[in-house]
Amino acid sequence: MFQVRIHGRGGQGVVTAAELLSVAAYLEGKHAQAFPSFGSERMGAPVVSFCRIDDKEIRLREPILEPDALIVQDPTLIKAIDVCQGLKPGGYLLVNSNRSLSDLHLDAVAKQLPAGHVLTVPASELALKHVGRPLPNAALLGAFARLTGIIQLQSVAAAIRDAFPEKIAAANIAAATAAHDAVASADAVAAA
Amino acid sequence: MTHPFAISLDVGTSLANLTGSWRTSRPVYVDRLPPCNHVCPAGENIQGWLYHAESGDYETAWRTLTTDNPLPAVMGRVCYHPCENACNRAQLDEAVGINSVERFLGDVAIRNGWRFAQPPSATGKRVLVVGAGPSGLSAAYQLRRMGHAVEIHEAGPFAGGMMRFGIPKYRLPRDVLDAEISRIVDLGVGIKLNSKVDRIVESMQAGGFDAAFLAVGAHIGKRSYIPAGSAAKILDAVSLLRSMEGEEQPLLGRRVVVYGGGNTALDAARTAKRLGATEAIIVYRRTRDRMPAHDFEVEEALQEGIMMKWLSTIKRMDEGVLTVEKMQLDSTGFPQPTGEFETLETDSLVLALGQDVDLSLLDGVPGLEIKDGTVQVAANMMTGYPGIFAGGDMVPSERTVTVAIGHGKKAARHIDAWLHGAAYAPSSAHELASFDKLNTWYYADAPKTVRPMLEVARRQSTFEEVQGGLDETNALYEARRCLSCGNCFECDNCYGVCPDNAVIKLGPGKRFQFNYDYCKGCGVCAQECPCGAIRMVPEEI
Amino acid sequence: MNDRTTTLDATQKLHFYQKGTFTVGNRLVSDQQRAVQASIDRSNALTCGHRACQGCGEALGARYAMDAAMRATGGNVIAVNATGCLEVFTTPYPETSWQTPWLHSLFGNAAAVATGVAAAMRVKGRPEVRAIAQGGDGGTTDIGFGCLSGMFERNDDVLYICYDNEAYMNTGVQRSSATPPAARTATTPAMGPEPGNVFGTGKSVPKIAVAHGIPYVATATVADLHDLERKVMKAMGIHGARYLHIHVPCPLGWGSASQDTIRLARLAVECGLFPVFEAEHGVVTGSRKIRRQVPVAEYLQPQRRFAHLFSSDAGKNRIAHLQAIADRNIAEYHLLDAEGEA
Amino acid sequence: MLKQIEGSRAMAEAIGLCRPEVICAYPITPQTHIVEGLGEMVRTGEISKCEFINVESEFAALSVAIGASAAGARAYTATASQGLLYMAEAVYNASGLGLPIVMTLGNRAIGAPINIWNDHSDAMAVADSGWMQLFAETNQEAADLHIQAFRLAEELSMPVMVCVDGFILTHAVERVDIPEQADVDAYLPPYEPVQVLDPQDPISIGAMVGPEAFTEVRYLQHYKQTLALRLIPEYAAAFKKQFGRDSGGLLRSYRCEDAELIVVAMGSVNGTIKDTIDEMRADGLSVGLVTLVSFRPFPTAALREKLVRALNVVVIEKSLAVGMGGPLANNVDLALRNVAGAPQVHSVIAGLGGRPITKTSLHRVLRGAFVQPWEGSHFLDLNEKIVAKELHYVRKVRRSGPTAENLLRRLGQAEKAAV
To answer: Domain range spanning residue D411?
Structure first.
C-alpha cells in the first residue's frame, strides 16, 4: 500500500488534490481511498488531506501517520508545523516552491531520503501561468506522477478532465504537464 | 486550571495562533510623490506645507515653504501654478487652491513680521550673484543659508528684476515685493544697486569671489521692422512696463494697439487701459486658443474691456492709422497672409514680441557656449567656465518667476557642492502618486473657494490689486482639501479596517506599523487607504 | 453616551472637513471625537489569532460593534454567541480571541440565553453589566428566530446583533432566508431555469423587529464605521430590546476578493440593495443617504455568486429585477433625499 | 409545617424556599401548576430577589436558564413530555457546559398518539443527556428532593432533573410537611459557581472542542456522576439530620431481607407495590421491593448488593424502549452483569399513557412470577383481544388506517357488546 499525505492551506485545493489522486489511481484499476482532515478550518488555515493507493481493497480507516510520500502545497507551513512527521525512510517529499531545499531548510530531511526522492516545483507559478490563479494542486500532481511513478500523467489528466469543466480542466492539465516535464528535464540534467 | 476543562478558555489564548503564516502577500507602507510637488518648477514641498497649514500651524507651514522658496507672497500672486493643473483633486471636484494658500501664508508672514533663521556658521566662501531678479534672489537666499557670503550686483535702481519691471502693480503690489526682498537682505545678503557687471571674470577677481551665479533678466524688448511714418508712436512693452516704475507716466493716447499674444502683451494692454486709454486693442496673428498667454489673464483682460483682433499682422503705421493684413491658419496651424488689408485707428503701438537678455557681460569669457540668445549650462547649472553658474531668463527654459526661483535654488545647491569640491546628488524621487492609487471615497466633496476679485470699474481705472486673498477660515478650508496623495496622513483607516488587528498604531506623527505575526495579507488596508500609501507585495514562496 | 455620539455626529459636519470626514480617524479632532476604532487603546474585544478567512467582514463587524459597546458601557459587557462562523473561528479549543466574558450555547437560542444573562445581572444587583447577543443571519433570521421574537416581545434588556453575510457560511455556503435572490449557494446552484436563489418575497428581520415596536432597531455596514459605532453607542444608551443588523461581506461565500470586503459593503449601500436606517418604538426615524448612487450591477459584478447573471440574456432580466428591488428600497427609505430628511 | 396541599403547590413552595433567582416558565401539562405557583409567589414577594420570565417555548425556557446560570444565578425551570423533547438540544447543552440548573419533570407520555397522562417515556428519552435524574415516590419526597437537588447540582456543577409522576403526584392533594426557611437556608448554602461570566474576570465559555479533547470532556462529565453516587446518600443523611425525615438517597428497600423475589420500581407506583407486597407476605410469599430514587447516576453497586441474594427480580416500569423492551429492566441487568448465580430478571411494562396500575393487576403478575417466570417483557393489562383483532385487520387491509383510532373504535364496540 502507498500512502500520501498532502499539506496545504484552506482554499488551495488540498482536498481536491487527494481526490484527484485517488481517481487517477482508480482509472488505472487500482484501489484508492481519499479523505480530508475534517474540521471547520478557514481559507488560509493549515489543512491536511490523505490518499491511499493499493492493488487490493483498502480497509484501513486511520489517518495516515507514516506516509510514503508527502506533498507540501505551501512551503510557509514548514515553519509553522512539522510536515515531515512520520515520513518513511524510503519516502518521497514534493514541495511547491521556486526556492531551493536549503532555502527551505530541508537539507537535513533530504539527506535522510534516497537520492532523487526530494523535489521542489514552482507549482504556484505554473498555475498562475496556465490557470491564472495560484492553485498549485494540479501542477503538483503532475510532478508527483513523474517523481514517484505511482501513477501516470495521463491518468492525472483524465482525473482532472472528470472533475472540471472543459476550459478549466484544459488549463489545469497544461499546468500538470508543465510540472511533469520540468521534473523530467531536471532528471535528465541530473542523469547527464 | 481554574475552570472546567476545554469548554472554557482563558482570555488572550488565541495570541498563540500566529495567523501571519497564512499570508501570501504582505502590505507595506510606502511614500509616493504627490503630483503637485512633482511639477512645481520651484521644487516646493507643497503637500508638506499644506499638512501644517491644515492644522492651523501657519508658521511651520511658512517655514517649510520657504526652505524652497523665499518669496511665497509674490509666488502666491504671480505663479501660474502648474501644481493646480496636476492636482489629483481636480479629477474629484476642483484642484486644491494651492496658490491662494501660498499667498495667504506669505501675507500672514509679512503681517506677523516672521524672519528667516540666521545661517548657523560662515564657510568663508564668497559668491557673486548678478541680477536681483527672482532667480538671483533665490540663489542668494539659499547660498546665504548655507553659510556663504553673498553679494548681489543689480544693474537697475531697485531689486526685484522682472518682478518689478515686468509685472504690473495690479498683479503684484510693490509693498509685498519689497517686504519679501528686505527679508532676504536681513538674512545678510548684500545688494549693490545701479552696479552693472560688464566683465564677469574681472568683477569676480576684483571682489575676490569664489563663484558666481548669473541671473540677468530678459529686459530687452524684441523689435521687428514695421514701416512707419515720422509721427507714428511705437514703443515696446518692456519699456512701457518699466517706465511705470518711474516718476512720470508714459503718454499713450486714447487708442492703443498692442502687438503680440503673450502675457506681456496682455500686461501692456491692461496697463494702457489703466493709464486712461478708451480703446486698448490686442492684435495677434493667430487665434485665441493659440495664444501663449494664460487663459485666465485673457479672461481678466476681456472683462476689463480690452479688445482682441485675431488673425492679423501689422504691415505699416502712419500717424493715427495702422494697416493690418488678415491672416488665415494653414493645415499646420501656421498663419498665412490673405492679401486682404484693413486699417485701424490708433494713437500708439506697443510691441510685445518677446524679450532678449543682455549677455554683454560674458564677452570674452572662455569656454562659454551661447545659443539663441541664451547661455548653455550643464545639468548642474554651471556654464562652460568653471565657477560661473547661470539661471533664469539667461538659460534655455520657460521664462517664469517660478522657474527662475527653481533655478536659483538648484544652482545654489550645486554651487555649494562645487565650493566644497563635491558634487550635489539630488535624492531619487519616489514613484508618482497618480489618481488611480487613491481611494477617494473617504474625501468629502468640497468645491474650491474662489478668491475675491476687484470689481471691473476700479480695475479699468486704478492699479489696485485685481485678485484678493483668502481669509483664515477659507485658507484653512482650502488647505484641508489636500488629499495628501501618496503619503500617510494618519487617518487610521488601515488601523481600523484590519480584520485581524494586525496594524499597530504608533501614536501622533509616528504613523503605523504592520504586525506580520497576525497579518493574513487580505489587502483590505491597501484597498481602503485613501491616499495610496500602502502597497501589497507578494510573499516569496 | 448619547451626548458623546451626537457631538461626534456634529463634529463630522463642523470640523472633519474634506480629509477625515469618512475615514476612521482624523488628527484634526480631539481623541474624544474620534471613532472608537481610531483609539490607540480601544478594547479589541475580538483580538488577534482568530481563524477567520482573509478579509472576513464578520470578524471586522464584530470587533467594531463590541469595541463600541465596551466604550459605551465602560467595559461592562457580556456577549452571548449563536453557533456559526463567528463562534467557530473565535473559540476553537484551546484558543479564544474574545477579551470580553463570552458564552456560546446553541445555534438557535442566543437571544434567550442573553435574556437569562440580563436577568441574572438584574437579580445580582449589577444592572450596569449589559448583555449582547450576536449571531449570523442563519442563527438570527432562521433557526434563532423564535427566541429572537420572544426576547423582542418581552422587551428584555438585550442588544441583539446580527452579522448578516447572507448565507450559512460555516457549513459551506448554504442558502439562508437572508440570501438575496439569484445568489448562488451550495443549495441554490447556478443551474436550471431559475439559477441561484429564488426570487421569493424576502424576509426583512429589521422590519420584523420594527413591527415588535421595540425601543431601537438599526441596520449598519462595515463600510460606514462612524454610523455603526454611533448606532451601537445609542443602542447601549437605551434599555430594553434592541436590534442591530450589520451587513458583513464574506469573501468565501460571495466569491469576492479578500481586499474587496469593505468596498462591497459600500456598494451594497450605494446601489440601494442594503438600506441603512434607524427606527425607534416601531417607527422608522431616518436613513443613511446614498452618496454616489451606482447601478446594482456594479455591486453584483465582483461577486462570483452572481457571475451567472452576467453570462446570459436571462441574467440581464434578473439584474433588472434586482435593480427594481433596490429602487423600491430607495423609495421606501428615502435613500436619495437630501441629508436630514427622514 | 404540615399542610394538606396539592403536590405541585408543595413543590412550588419547596422550590421557593431554595431562593431561586431566575425562574423560566412555559406551560405544559402536567407541570403547569408548579410554575403558576412560583409566579404567584414571586408576585406576592414570598420569593424575593427573583426574576420570573414567561418565555415563548421550552427551548427558550431552558436557554434562559442556561444564560442565567452561566451568569451566576440559581436557575430553575419545569417541563414535561413533548416540552422536554422540544428543549432536548438545550438539555444536552446545559449538562455539557456544567451548569447546575434544577428542572422539575412532570412525567408524562410522549405522542403520537397524543396523550397527556403519566408515564416515564419523557425521562427515559433524555436519561443519557448528562443530567442527574431523581424520581420521587411521594409529594413529600418530591418537595424534599428539590432542596437536595439544588445542593447536589451546585456542588458538582451539574444539572438535576427531579422526576415527578404527572397527575398522580402533581395533582394529588395530600399531607406534606413544608420545611421552614431557616432549615432550608441551613441545609442549602448560597450558590457559589465554579465559573461565571464577569467583566472583571472574563472567560469564554462554550468552546468548540475537537477529537483531541472531547473524550476527556465526556469522561469528566461521567466521573462527576460517579461522585454523585457518594454525595446523594450523604446529602440524604444530612437532610434527615436537618429535617428529621428520610427522603431521597440512591435507593430504598422494603422487606427485602431474605426475599426470594424482589420488585424494582421508580416513582409513585412504589406505594401501591408496597401494599401489594404486604398482602403477599401475609400469604407467605417471600417478596420485597427496591425503590430506585436515582436513575442517573445509576447506583449499580448498591442495587447489586440489594438484589444479589434473590432468585427472581421483577422490574416494573412506566416506559418502553420500542423494539428493545424496558429500559429500567435493562439497567437492572447491568447491575447483575457478570455476577455468578445472579437472579433471573423479568420485565413488566405498566401504566403507559396513564393506565392505572392496580393492586389486582400487580397481584396477578407478581404471583405469576413465583409460578411461571417469563422471558422478555410482560405488558401489564394488555388487551390482547383488541390487539389481535387489529393485527388481523392490518394483515387483511393495506390501507388499514391509524391504529389508535381503530383500537378506540373496537373498545367502543366491546363495551356495547358487554351491555
So the answer is: 384-418
